[in-house]
Design a protein that fits this description.
Elements: E1 12-17, H1 20-36, E2 42-47, H2 50-53, H3 59-62, H4 70-77, E3 83-87, E4 99-104, E5 112-116, E6 133-135, H5 139-148, E7 153-155, H6 161-169, E8 175-179, H7 180-185, E9 194-195, E10 210-215, H8 219-226, H9 231-247, E11 255-262, E12 265-273, E13 280-287, H10 292-305, H11 308-323
Parallel strand pairs: 1-2, 1-3, 6-7, 6-8
Antiparallel strand pairs: 3-10, 4-10, 5-8, 5-9, 11-12, 12-13
Helix pairs in contact: 9-10
The chain binds ligand DPM.
The site of ligand DPM has 16 residues, from α5, β8 and α7.
Length: about 325
Protein backbone atom coordinates (compact mmCIF):
# COMPACT_ATOMS: atom_id res chain seq x y z
CA UNK A 1 0.00 0.00 0.00
CA UNK A 2 1.24 3.49 -0.80
CA UNK A 3 1.99 5.99 1.92
CA UNK A 4 1.07 9.57 1.22
CA UNK A 5 3.51 12.12 2.53
CA UNK A 6 1.99 15.46 3.45
CA UNK A 7 4.03 18.56 2.95
CA UNK A 8 3.05 22.13 2.12
CA UNK A 9 5.11 21.91 -1.05
CA UNK A 10 3.53 18.69 -2.25
CA UNK A 11 2.43 19.11 -5.86
CA UNK A 12 -0.93 17.44 -6.48
CA UNK A 13 -0.87 15.36 -9.67
CA UNK A 14 -4.16 15.04 -11.56
CA UNK A 15 -4.54 12.06 -13.90
CA UNK A 16 -6.53 12.26 -17.11
CA UNK A 17 -7.23 10.32 -20.28
CA UNK A 18 -5.91 12.02 -23.40
CA UNK A 19 -9.15 12.41 -25.34
CA UNK A 20 -10.28 15.94 -26.09
CA UNK A 21 -13.35 15.56 -23.85
CA UNK A 22 -11.33 14.06 -20.98
CA UNK A 23 -8.82 16.93 -21.16
CA UNK A 24 -11.52 19.62 -21.20
CA UNK A 25 -13.06 18.00 -18.12
CA UNK A 26 -9.73 17.65 -16.33
CA UNK A 27 -8.69 21.25 -17.00
CA UNK A 28 -12.08 22.38 -15.72
CA UNK A 29 -11.48 20.52 -12.46
CA UNK A 30 -7.91 21.81 -12.26
CA UNK A 31 -9.15 25.38 -12.58
CA UNK A 32 -11.92 24.90 -10.00
CA UNK A 33 -9.60 23.36 -7.41
CA UNK A 34 -6.84 25.89 -8.15
CA UNK A 35 -9.34 28.70 -7.52
CA UNK A 36 -10.35 27.11 -4.23
CA UNK A 37 -6.69 26.70 -3.15
CA UNK A 38 -4.64 29.44 -4.87
CA UNK A 39 -1.53 28.66 -2.78
CA UNK A 40 -1.38 25.00 -3.84
CA UNK A 41 0.12 23.53 -7.00
CA UNK A 42 -1.82 21.19 -9.27
CA UNK A 43 -0.46 19.59 -12.44
CA UNK A 44 -2.07 17.36 -15.06
CA UNK A 45 -0.61 14.02 -16.20
CA UNK A 46 -2.18 12.17 -19.12
CA UNK A 47 -2.43 8.42 -19.70
CA UNK A 48 -3.95 6.17 -22.39
CA UNK A 49 -6.53 3.66 -21.24
CA UNK A 50 -7.45 0.31 -22.75
CA UNK A 51 -10.70 1.84 -24.05
CA UNK A 52 -8.73 4.47 -25.98
CA UNK A 53 -6.75 1.76 -27.76
CA UNK A 54 -9.51 -0.60 -28.94
CA UNK A 55 -11.73 1.57 -31.05
CA UNK A 56 -13.03 -1.04 -33.46
CA UNK A 57 -14.95 -3.23 -31.02
CA UNK A 58 -18.48 -2.38 -29.87
CA UNK A 59 -18.36 -1.20 -26.25
CA UNK A 60 -21.10 -3.60 -25.21
CA UNK A 61 -19.10 -6.58 -26.48
CA UNK A 62 -15.97 -5.80 -24.54
CA UNK A 63 -17.70 -6.53 -21.26
CA UNK A 64 -15.04 -4.81 -19.19
CA UNK A 65 -16.37 -2.11 -16.96
CA UNK A 66 -13.10 -0.45 -16.09
CA UNK A 67 -12.27 0.17 -19.73
CA UNK A 68 -11.59 3.89 -19.39
CA UNK A 69 -10.43 3.94 -15.78
CA UNK A 70 -8.08 1.03 -15.00
CA UNK A 71 -4.77 2.62 -16.02
CA UNK A 72 -5.56 5.76 -14.05
CA UNK A 73 -6.48 3.64 -11.03
CA UNK A 74 -3.15 1.81 -11.24
CA UNK A 75 -1.45 5.19 -11.43
CA UNK A 76 -3.07 6.20 -8.14
CA UNK A 77 -2.27 2.92 -6.40
CA UNK A 78 1.35 3.19 -7.56
CA UNK A 79 1.51 6.80 -6.34
CA UNK A 80 2.20 8.27 -9.79
CA UNK A 81 -0.88 10.49 -9.69
CA UNK A 82 -3.00 11.70 -6.74
CA UNK A 83 -6.49 11.83 -8.20
CA UNK A 84 -8.20 11.07 -11.49
CA UNK A 85 -11.02 12.89 -13.25
CA UNK A 86 -13.59 10.66 -14.99
CA UNK A 87 -16.93 11.05 -16.68
CA UNK A 88 -18.84 9.58 -13.78
CA UNK A 89 -20.80 7.31 -16.06
CA UNK A 90 -17.58 5.57 -17.13
CA UNK A 91 -16.53 4.89 -13.52
CA UNK A 92 -17.54 1.39 -12.39
CA UNK A 93 -19.85 1.24 -9.36
CA UNK A 94 -17.34 -0.98 -7.54
CA UNK A 95 -13.95 0.67 -7.10
CA UNK A 96 -10.68 -1.18 -6.50
CA UNK A 97 -9.57 -1.71 -2.92
CA UNK A 98 -7.83 1.42 -1.66
CA UNK A 99 -9.63 3.90 -3.94
CA UNK A 100 -12.76 5.99 -3.32
CA UNK A 101 -15.01 8.45 -5.10
CA UNK A 102 -13.64 11.60 -3.49
CA UNK A 103 -15.90 14.15 -5.14
CA UNK A 104 -18.72 14.59 -7.63
CA UNK A 105 -18.91 18.00 -9.29
CA UNK A 106 -22.01 19.86 -10.44
CA UNK A 107 -23.86 18.00 -13.13
CA UNK A 108 -24.62 19.40 -16.56
CA UNK A 109 -27.78 18.48 -18.45
CA UNK A 110 -27.76 14.65 -18.15
CA UNK A 111 -30.08 14.04 -21.11
CA UNK A 112 -29.36 12.34 -24.43
CA UNK A 113 -29.40 14.34 -27.66
CA UNK A 114 -30.47 13.46 -31.18
CA UNK A 115 -27.97 14.63 -33.81
CA UNK A 116 -29.21 14.33 -37.39
CA UNK A 117 -27.72 14.22 -40.88
CA UNK A 118 -28.23 17.50 -42.79
CA UNK A 119 -30.96 15.96 -44.93
CA UNK A 120 -33.13 15.49 -41.83
CA UNK A 121 -32.85 19.05 -40.49
CA UNK A 122 -36.64 19.37 -40.48
CA UNK A 123 -37.21 16.07 -38.64
CA UNK A 124 -37.52 15.02 -35.01
CA UNK A 125 -37.41 11.53 -33.49
CA UNK A 126 -41.17 11.35 -34.07
CA UNK A 127 -40.90 12.16 -37.78
CA UNK A 128 -37.72 10.38 -38.94
CA UNK A 129 -38.74 7.94 -41.68
CA UNK A 130 -39.29 4.22 -41.30
CA UNK A 131 -35.96 2.37 -41.56
CA UNK A 132 -33.91 5.43 -40.57
CA UNK A 133 -30.46 4.23 -39.43
CA UNK A 134 -29.65 5.37 -35.89
CA UNK A 135 -26.03 5.13 -34.68
CA UNK A 136 -25.34 4.16 -31.08
CA UNK A 137 -23.32 1.56 -29.24
CA UNK A 138 -25.21 2.09 -26.00
CA UNK A 139 -27.50 -0.83 -25.17
CA UNK A 140 -29.50 1.57 -23.00
CA UNK A 141 -30.18 3.97 -25.88
CA UNK A 142 -30.80 1.10 -28.28
CA UNK A 143 -33.33 -0.71 -26.07
CA UNK A 144 -35.33 2.39 -25.17
CA UNK A 145 -35.49 3.74 -28.71
CA UNK A 146 -36.46 0.32 -30.06
CA UNK A 147 -39.27 0.19 -27.51
CA UNK A 148 -40.75 3.54 -28.56
CA UNK A 149 -39.68 3.54 -32.25
CA UNK A 150 -39.63 -0.06 -33.47
CA UNK A 151 -39.50 1.11 -37.11
CA UNK A 152 -35.89 2.40 -36.92
CA UNK A 153 -32.72 0.44 -37.77
CA UNK A 154 -29.81 0.54 -35.33
CA UNK A 155 -26.10 0.39 -36.15
CA UNK A 156 -23.06 0.40 -33.86
CA UNK A 157 -20.84 3.48 -33.81
CA UNK A 158 -17.52 3.96 -32.00
CA UNK A 159 -14.79 6.54 -31.77
CA UNK A 160 -14.58 9.95 -30.16
CA UNK A 161 -17.20 12.64 -30.68
CA UNK A 162 -15.53 14.15 -33.76
CA UNK A 163 -15.16 10.75 -35.43
CA UNK A 164 -18.81 9.97 -34.78
CA UNK A 165 -19.99 13.29 -36.15
CA UNK A 166 -17.87 12.75 -39.28
CA UNK A 167 -19.38 9.29 -39.78
CA UNK A 168 -22.85 10.83 -39.49
CA UNK A 169 -22.07 13.67 -41.90
CA UNK A 170 -20.58 11.29 -44.46
CA UNK A 171 -23.92 9.51 -44.70
CA UNK A 172 -23.30 6.30 -42.73
CA UNK A 173 -26.27 7.09 -40.46
CA UNK A 174 -29.47 9.15 -40.58
CA UNK A 175 -28.98 10.21 -36.97
CA UNK A 176 -26.86 9.39 -33.92
CA UNK A 177 -27.49 9.70 -30.19
CA UNK A 178 -24.94 11.46 -27.96
CA UNK A 179 -24.91 12.88 -24.45
CA UNK A 180 -25.89 16.56 -24.30
CA UNK A 181 -23.14 17.11 -21.70
CA UNK A 182 -20.29 15.94 -23.95
CA UNK A 183 -21.44 18.12 -26.85
CA UNK A 184 -21.78 21.12 -24.55
CA UNK A 185 -18.35 20.67 -22.97
CA UNK A 186 -16.76 20.52 -26.41
CA UNK A 187 -18.70 23.64 -27.48
CA UNK A 188 -20.61 21.70 -30.10
CA UNK A 189 -24.05 22.57 -28.80
CA UNK A 190 -25.09 23.66 -32.29
CA UNK A 191 -25.10 19.95 -33.21
CA UNK A 192 -27.81 19.21 -30.63
CA UNK A 193 -30.88 18.85 -32.83
CA UNK A 194 -33.33 17.59 -30.20
CA UNK A 195 -32.96 16.97 -26.50
CA UNK A 196 -34.60 13.59 -26.02
CA UNK A 197 -37.17 13.82 -23.21
CA UNK A 198 -36.75 11.59 -20.15
CA UNK A 199 -40.06 9.93 -21.01
CA UNK A 200 -38.32 8.40 -24.05
CA UNK A 201 -34.70 8.02 -22.95
CA UNK A 202 -33.66 7.73 -19.33
CA UNK A 203 -29.99 8.68 -19.13
CA UNK A 204 -27.05 6.56 -17.96
CA UNK A 205 -26.16 6.43 -14.28
CA UNK A 206 -23.94 9.42 -13.51
CA UNK A 207 -24.34 10.97 -16.97
CA UNK A 208 -23.37 14.65 -17.14
CA UNK A 209 -21.40 14.59 -13.87
CA UNK A 210 -17.66 14.28 -13.26
CA UNK A 211 -16.42 11.79 -10.70
CA UNK A 212 -13.06 12.29 -9.03
CA UNK A 213 -11.37 9.19 -7.69
CA UNK A 214 -8.50 9.20 -5.19
CA UNK A 215 -6.71 7.02 -2.63
CA UNK A 216 -8.94 6.20 0.34
CA UNK A 217 -6.27 7.10 2.90
CA UNK A 218 -5.12 10.35 1.29
CA UNK A 219 -6.91 12.64 3.75
CA UNK A 220 -5.13 15.70 2.38
CA UNK A 221 -6.43 15.20 -1.16
CA UNK A 222 -9.87 14.17 0.13
CA UNK A 223 -10.12 17.49 2.00
CA UNK A 224 -9.14 19.44 -1.12
CA UNK A 225 -11.68 17.56 -3.26
CA UNK A 226 -14.54 18.23 -0.84
CA UNK A 227 -14.29 21.92 -1.76
CA UNK A 228 -15.37 21.28 -5.34
CA UNK A 229 -18.09 18.76 -4.52
CA UNK A 230 -21.70 19.61 -5.42
CA UNK A 231 -23.97 18.09 -2.80
CA UNK A 232 -27.27 17.70 -4.73
CA UNK A 233 -25.41 16.13 -7.68
CA UNK A 234 -23.59 13.81 -5.28
CA UNK A 235 -26.84 12.69 -3.65
CA UNK A 236 -28.52 12.08 -6.99
CA UNK A 237 -25.54 10.14 -8.32
CA UNK A 238 -25.18 8.04 -5.16
CA UNK A 239 -28.82 6.97 -5.54
CA UNK A 240 -28.24 6.17 -9.24
CA UNK A 241 -25.04 4.24 -8.57
CA UNK A 242 -26.58 2.18 -5.75
CA UNK A 243 -29.43 1.23 -8.12
CA UNK A 244 -27.01 0.16 -10.86
CA UNK A 245 -24.68 -1.67 -8.45
CA UNK A 246 -27.58 -3.86 -7.35
CA UNK A 247 -28.70 -4.80 -10.87
CA UNK A 248 -25.68 -4.98 -13.15
CA UNK A 249 -23.74 -8.07 -14.07
CA UNK A 250 -20.33 -8.12 -15.67
CA UNK A 251 -21.07 -5.86 -18.62
CA UNK A 252 -22.79 -2.82 -20.02
CA UNK A 253 -26.55 -3.20 -19.53
CA UNK A 254 -29.70 -1.42 -20.78
CA UNK A 255 -30.39 0.42 -17.54
CA UNK A 256 -31.43 4.07 -17.44
CA UNK A 257 -32.29 6.54 -14.70
CA UNK A 258 -33.53 10.01 -13.94
CA UNK A 259 -33.29 11.90 -10.64
CA UNK A 260 -34.51 15.18 -9.22
CA UNK A 261 -34.41 16.82 -5.81
CA UNK A 262 -37.38 19.06 -5.03
CA UNK A 263 -38.50 20.32 -1.62
CA UNK A 264 -35.84 18.13 -0.05
CA UNK A 265 -37.27 14.98 -1.65
CA UNK A 266 -35.04 12.89 -3.91
CA UNK A 267 -36.94 11.07 -6.64
CA UNK A 268 -35.18 8.29 -8.55
CA UNK A 269 -36.77 6.80 -11.66
CA UNK A 270 -35.16 3.77 -13.25
CA UNK A 271 -35.76 1.34 -16.08
CA UNK A 272 -34.50 -1.98 -17.38
CA UNK A 273 -35.31 -2.96 -20.98
CA UNK A 274 -34.77 -5.99 -23.20
CA UNK A 275 -32.47 -5.56 -26.21
CA UNK A 276 -35.26 -6.24 -28.69
CA UNK A 277 -37.16 -3.32 -27.18
CA UNK A 278 -40.18 -5.48 -26.41
CA UNK A 279 -40.06 -5.29 -22.63
CA UNK A 280 -39.41 -2.21 -20.57
CA UNK A 281 -39.89 -2.03 -16.81
CA UNK A 282 -39.90 1.40 -15.21
CA UNK A 283 -40.69 2.65 -11.70
CA UNK A 284 -39.74 5.35 -9.18
CA UNK A 285 -38.87 5.62 -5.48
CA UNK A 286 -38.71 8.81 -3.40
CA UNK A 287 -37.10 9.64 -0.08
CA UNK A 288 -34.77 11.93 1.81
CA UNK A 289 -31.61 12.95 -0.11
CA UNK A 290 -29.68 11.77 2.98
CA UNK A 291 -30.88 8.23 2.21
CA UNK A 292 -29.73 8.34 -1.42
CA UNK A 293 -28.21 4.86 -1.52
CA UNK A 294 -31.18 3.26 0.27
CA UNK A 295 -33.45 4.79 -2.41
CA UNK A 296 -31.29 3.18 -5.11
CA UNK A 297 -31.44 -0.23 -3.41
CA UNK A 298 -35.22 0.04 -2.93
CA UNK A 299 -35.77 0.82 -6.61
CA UNK A 300 -33.58 -2.09 -7.71
CA UNK A 301 -35.63 -4.39 -5.46
CA UNK A 302 -38.89 -3.03 -6.85
CA UNK A 303 -37.82 -3.55 -10.49
CA UNK A 304 -36.62 -7.08 -9.66
CA UNK A 305 -40.06 -7.90 -8.31
CA UNK A 306 -41.45 -6.78 -11.66
CA UNK A 307 -39.18 -9.09 -13.69
CA UNK A 308 -36.03 -7.02 -14.28
CA UNK A 309 -33.73 -9.87 -13.29
CA UNK A 310 -35.11 -12.18 -16.00
CA UNK A 311 -34.49 -9.52 -18.63
CA UNK A 312 -30.94 -8.94 -17.39
CA UNK A 313 -30.10 -12.66 -17.12
CA UNK A 314 -31.12 -13.13 -20.76
CA UNK A 315 -28.90 -10.22 -21.82
CA UNK A 316 -25.88 -11.50 -19.86
CA UNK A 317 -26.31 -14.89 -21.55
CA UNK A 318 -26.61 -13.28 -25.01
CA UNK A 319 -23.52 -11.13 -24.54
CA UNK A 320 -21.48 -14.09 -23.27
CA UNK A 321 -22.58 -16.18 -26.25
CA UNK A 322 -21.67 -13.39 -28.71
CA UNK A 323 -18.28 -12.95 -27.11
CA UNK A 324 -17.35 -16.58 -27.90
C1 LIG B 1 -21.07 4.76 -21.24
C2 LIG B 1 -21.99 4.69 -22.29
C3 LIG B 1 -21.50 5.55 -23.30
C4 LIG B 1 -20.29 6.13 -22.83
C5 LIG B 1 -23.23 3.85 -22.30
C6 LIG B 1 -24.54 4.63 -22.16
C7 LIG B 1 -22.14 5.81 -24.63
C8 LIG B 1 -21.71 4.82 -25.69
C9 LIG B 1 -22.35 5.10 -27.03
C10 LIG B 1 -21.12 4.06 -19.95
N1 LIG B 1 -20.04 5.60 -21.59
O1 LIG B 1 -24.59 5.86 -22.09
O2 LIG B 1 -25.60 3.98 -22.14
O3 LIG B 1 -23.31 5.86 -27.15
O4 LIG B 1 -21.90 4.54 -28.01
C11 LIG B 1 -19.36 8.50 -22.78
C12 LIG B 1 -19.82 9.77 -23.25
C13 LIG B 1 -19.60 10.69 -22.20
C14 LIG B 1 -19.02 9.99 -21.17
C15 LIG B 1 -20.36 10.07 -24.60
C16 LIG B 1 -21.86 9.92 -24.76
C17 LIG B 1 -19.89 12.18 -22.17
C18 LIG B 1 -21.08 12.56 -21.31
C19 LIG B 1 -20.87 12.48 -19.82
C20 LIG B 1 -19.37 7.15 -23.50
N2 LIG B 1 -18.85 8.68 -21.55
O5 LIG B 1 -22.57 9.33 -23.94
O6 LIG B 1 -22.36 10.44 -25.79
O7 LIG B 1 -19.81 12.82 -19.29
O8 LIG B 1 -21.83 12.08 -19.15
Amino acid sequence: MTVTVSSPSRIIRIGSRKSQLALVQTYWVQEAIQNAFPERQFEVQTMSTHGDKILDVALSKIGDKGLFTKELELGMLQNEIDFAVHSLKDLPTQLPEGLVLGSVTERENPADALVVHAKHQDKQLETLPEGAVIGTSSLRRLAQLRYYYPHFEFKDIRGNLNTRLQKLDSGDYDAIILAVAGLERLEMRDRIHQIIPAEISLHAVGQGALGIECRAEDTEVLALLKEIQHTPTTQRCYAERAFLRDLEGGCQVPIGVNTAIENNVLKLTGMVASLDGKQLIKDSVEGSPDDAEAIGHALAQRLREQGAQDILDKIFAEIQRDAK
